[in-house]
Task: inverse folding
């Protein structure tokens, strides 16, 4: 029975982007889906136009961006599908009624946006006073956003937003520690529609500019066949060694995950190839699913793109993009090396066979037919890191590079006819991100209006007795809990607005605090009990989701340790002189390697429980800042290795 349930996991239902893509594919003959495709095309065209000519004022640019996304949700996710779990969808009259409601909401959305921008544009001449239109616009946009979030993201996100709105309303009636002056519903609606900290605040600003552009670039790149190229080049580089199939998953999923920024979508995109390949070579299904989910999740912390996290951090911290990328290099390398070391160790324990040389493509052949993709990626990296254009223009020029460069592709994997479908897919892919950012904007707006972020931060500092470590632990747990029910972007935005300021008060730099929060918001994708990336991997591997999530946590353990390490040692974020940075990296590298083998149970020989515990402890000590801890950890590791030299030769036989 359990196996049957596992096989029936609907992978696309775990991610709103995948669900939207499936809706577009399955509803080609539906009038509303056709209209949605036209709207999606127009949404992408709007962003290309504003990217070239310059952005409109904040309420116009962000308002149109949000209105397009709300329209797409209302067209593709009709009310009758989300009313009592599709119970009355069989009634034609009910479906028509629901469609009428959806169309009315679309009209109200655009009318409300027009009212909001009219109010903002006349604030100066009205001496900052607003009219009833601001109240109406704020109320409608907030309600439609919450309803669309319910349909595409589930109940957790809108319920969380409503809790913060309720907090803003009930301020004077709350306990003294969290009480505030209180705000009327009218004041809240006006604030959401017209204030820079409202619906059209920083979160929506990043979504309406940078994030959408990179989603568009990812869609164009995927349409060109780049994912196949990355998979093939990864196999060609690693396929000849025993752990090659699993290592290729680590490499390919990390690269693709960095571009598309969605852990679940990346698991499905690359996992349909890598997971069956790992299973065919002898890896157990939970391990194969775990490898894919860990590698795909880590793409969001892998420079230079880092999904959408780096661009949000630019807005929230004021740091230059290049500084964020540099700071994230060593943590990301340690994360992926921890996974790779675990894969190599597990390859000795499992009955893994090497790939048939006939099935391994030659790197020369792959590069000969796919070098053109390196040119496209080179355009992006040049714009971001060398020319140091803004992320928006870098993504825009990289997107333009796809059809231009692919004109020279002899296999014609991307033609001019592919542009329109890629534009449509771009808007569908960004739809859930926009709604998540809008909903998070409501939360952030209420935090700004009420000042609960400062109050909550002070309470956390007092509870931790002004100590950094307990505060970090509390922050990590909160981020993971938030991330279980929210998209990574939304979880990071909410957690950073509430928790990051308190970490900064305790002495961390803004970049360190925000990177810590973002790490754990990402890791929620593999953390039980709601580990969406692990669930997606389990759905493809046909195994238990919980077992897969546990394997994923063992494989991605470095991601849970590295954030604590860089909070205490800035050298891990490339801050300091070269000797300090190199010393920290080597120590952490050795620590990650030894801990990985301890968790898996193999290092030159099969480890018993005591040996595994000693290796894990030694590796952990190598992570803790300080020469004394490094020395003690190194002595433990070397002592264990030297005392078991006889087992080295018998290692493979023991396995």
Result:
């Amino acid at each position: 029975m359990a196996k049957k349930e596992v096989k029936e996991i609907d992978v696309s239902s775990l991610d709103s982007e995948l669900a939207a893509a499936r809706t577009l594919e399955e509803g080609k003959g539906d009038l509303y889906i056709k209209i949605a495709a036209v709207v999606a095309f127009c949404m992408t065209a709007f962003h290309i136009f504003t990217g070239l000519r310059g952005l409109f004022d904040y309420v116009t640019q962000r308002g149109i961006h949000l209105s397009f996304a709300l329209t797409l949700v209302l067209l593709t996710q009709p009310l009758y599908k989300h009313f009592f779990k599709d119970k009355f969808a069989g009634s034609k009259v009910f479906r028509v009624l629901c469609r009428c409601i959806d169309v009315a909401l679309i009209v109200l959305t655009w009318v409300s946006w027009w009212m909001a921008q009219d109010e903002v544009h006349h604030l100066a001449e009205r001496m900052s006073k607003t009219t009833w239109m601001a109240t109406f616009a704020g109320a409608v946009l907030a309600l439609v956003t919450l309803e669309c979030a319910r349909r595409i993201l589930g109940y957790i996100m809108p319920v969380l937003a409503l809790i913060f709105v309720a907090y803003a309303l009930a301020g004077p009636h709350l306990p003294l520690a969290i009480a505030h002056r209180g705000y009327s519903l009218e004041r809240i609606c006006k604030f959401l529609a017209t204030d820079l900290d409202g619906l059209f605040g920083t979160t929506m600003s990043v979504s309406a500019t940078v994030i959408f552009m990179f989603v568009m670039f990812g869609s164009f790149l995927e349409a060109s066949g780049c994912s196949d190229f990355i998979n093939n080049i990864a196999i060609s580089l690693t396929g000849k060694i025993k752990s090659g199939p699993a290592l290729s998953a680590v490499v390919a999923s990390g690269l693709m995950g960095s571009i598309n920024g969605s852990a679940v979508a990346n698991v499905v995109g690359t996992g349909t190839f890598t997971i069956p390949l790992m299973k065919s070579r002898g890896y157990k299904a939970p391990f194969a699913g775990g490898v894919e989910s860990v590698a795909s999740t880590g793409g969001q912390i892998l420079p230079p793109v880092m999904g959408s996290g780096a661009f949000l951090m630019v807005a929230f911290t004021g740091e230059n993009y290049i500084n964020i990328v540099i700071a994230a290099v060593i943590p990301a390398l340690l994360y992926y090396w921890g996974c790779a070391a675990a894969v190599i160790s597990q390859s000795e324990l499992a009955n893994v066979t090497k790939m048939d040389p006939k099935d391994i493509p030659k790197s020369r052949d792959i590069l000969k037919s796919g070098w053109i993709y390196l040119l496209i990626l080179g355009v992006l990296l040049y714009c971001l890191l060398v020319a140091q254009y803004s992320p928006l223009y870098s993504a825009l020029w990289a997107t333009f590079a796809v059809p231009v460069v692919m004109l020279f592709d002899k296999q014609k994997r991307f033609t001019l006819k592919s542009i329109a479908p890629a534009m449509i897919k771009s808007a569908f892919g960004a739809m859930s991100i926009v709604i998540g950012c809008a909903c998070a904007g409501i939360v952030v707006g209420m935090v700004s209006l009420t000042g609960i972020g400062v109050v909550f931060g002070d309470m956390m500092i007092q509870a931790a007795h002004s100590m950094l470590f307990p505060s970090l632990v509390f922050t990590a747990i909160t981020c993971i809990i938030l991330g279980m029910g929210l998209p990574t972007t939304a979880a990071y935005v909410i957690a950073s607005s509430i928790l990051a300021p308190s970490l900064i008060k305790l002495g961390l730099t803004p970049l360190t605090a925000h990177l810590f929060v973002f790490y754990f918001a990402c890791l929620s994708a593999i953390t039980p009990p709601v580990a969406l990336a692990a669930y997606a991997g389990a759905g493809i591997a046909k195994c238990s989701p919980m077992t897969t999530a546990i394997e994923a946590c063992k494989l991605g353990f470095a991601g849970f340790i590295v954030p604590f390490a860089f909070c205490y040692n800035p050298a891990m974020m490339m801050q300091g002189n070269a000797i300090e940075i190199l010393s920290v990296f080597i120590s952490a590298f050795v620590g990650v390697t030894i801990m990985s083998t301890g968790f898996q149970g193999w290092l030159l020989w099969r480890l018993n429980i005591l040996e595994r515990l000693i290796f894990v402890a030694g590796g952990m000590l190598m992570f803790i800042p300080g020469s004394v801890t490094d020395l003690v950890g190194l002595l433990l590791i070397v002592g264990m290795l030297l005392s078991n030299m006889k087992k080295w030769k018998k290692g493979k036989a023991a396995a």
